[in-house]
Write a structure and sequence with these properties.
Elements lengths: L2 H4 L3 E3 L4 E6 L20 E5 L21 H14 L5 E6 L1 H12 L4 E7 L19 H13 L1 H13 L5 H13 L2 H12 L13 E9 L5 H10 L3 E9 L3 H4 L1 H11 L1
Parallel strand pairs: 2-3, 2-4, 4-5, 5-6, 6-7
Antiparallel strand pairs: 1-3
């Protein structure tokens, strides 16, 4: 099975320039279904599933490789090379925003623009450095312990909070179902790799043109995180969206499309 098959790749659009869309934790490429069509006229839109998610090849999952975000970044580089990507746009939601940054550091020729949707280089506060990530170390451990003990219960409890659109319960239900479809063991490992990561050092010297999309209210990546990224990334643009929650690609696709289109 090729790397393209392993990642359940779907390509659409007639444009000359590649745009790769990467989903966040507990999700799959279906999270981009409202956004992707808007770029098909001008881009070759590449959607894929991270290994362990969606329709990816689960036999390719290596617990050691994917214990760190760098393992996923290596996959992005390999996949982009196999697809002949050059001068592309990488659009990463949530943890895939940092995966994309790591991939570009490994292979800068692949992508000349990075779009980060609800990114965070570190979820845990660092009081000594004056960094606000949104969670204490104890809160992250509690979250991970809950996931370890009760994957289904964690999914049902966390999805409405993450989505944060109480007037549209169908969105939280979709996210719950997406979480529940993920293999529990893979979900536990990916959650730990995600929520205990600290990629602040990887931001140093990163000069790729970057758009940071920050939702008005986001329990996973609060405004302080977006502002921090904008301060430390010299070639970045920060857009504060009206959308709430952590998944504007699903809850506010039109606003998400407008912001990306204005950037690219």
């Amino acid at each position: 099975m090729t790397v393209i098959d392993q990642h359940n790749v779907h390509i659409s659009g007639a444009g000359p320039r590649p745009m790769m869309l990467a989903h966040g934790f507990g999700c799959d490429q279906n999270m981009w279904r409202f956004v992707a069509p808007a770029f098909e006229e001008d881009f070759r839109v590449i959607q894929f599933d991270l290994i362990g998610a969606g329709g990816s090849d689960l036999s390719a999952y290596d617990p050691e490789k994917y214990s760190r975000l760098e393992g996923y970044a290596e996959d992005v580089v390999e996949l982009a090379e196999a697809l002949g990507v050059r001068d592309g746009v990488f659009v990463g939601h949530s943890v895939s925003a940092m995966i994309g940054l790591l991939a570009i550091r490994k292979a800068p020729h692949l992508f000349s623009d990075l779009v980060m949707v609800g990114p965070s280089p570190r979820y845990i506060d660092d009081e000594a450095a004056g960094y606000v990530g949104g969670f204490s170390a104890a809160q992250i451990e509690e979250l991970l312990d809950f996931l370890d003990q009760n994957h289904m219960g964690w999914s049902q409890a966390m999805a409405p909070t993450i989505m944060d659109n109480a007037d549209r319960p169908e969105l939280a239900e979709e996210l719950t179902n997406s979480f529940c479809r993920t293999d529990p063991d893979i979900a536990k490992r990916f959650a730990r790799a995600t929520f205990t990561s600290d990629n602040r050092a990887d931001l140093a010297g990163f000069e790729t043109r970057t758009l940071i999309l920050q939702c008005a209210e986001d329990v996973i990546a609060p405004q302080a995180v977006g502002q921090y990224l904008h301060r430390v990334l010299p070639n970045s643009e920060l857009v504060l969206m009206e959308a709430t929650g952590h998944c504007p690609n699903l809850s506010a696709p039109d606003e998400t499309i407008r912001a990306i289109r204005a950037f690219v």
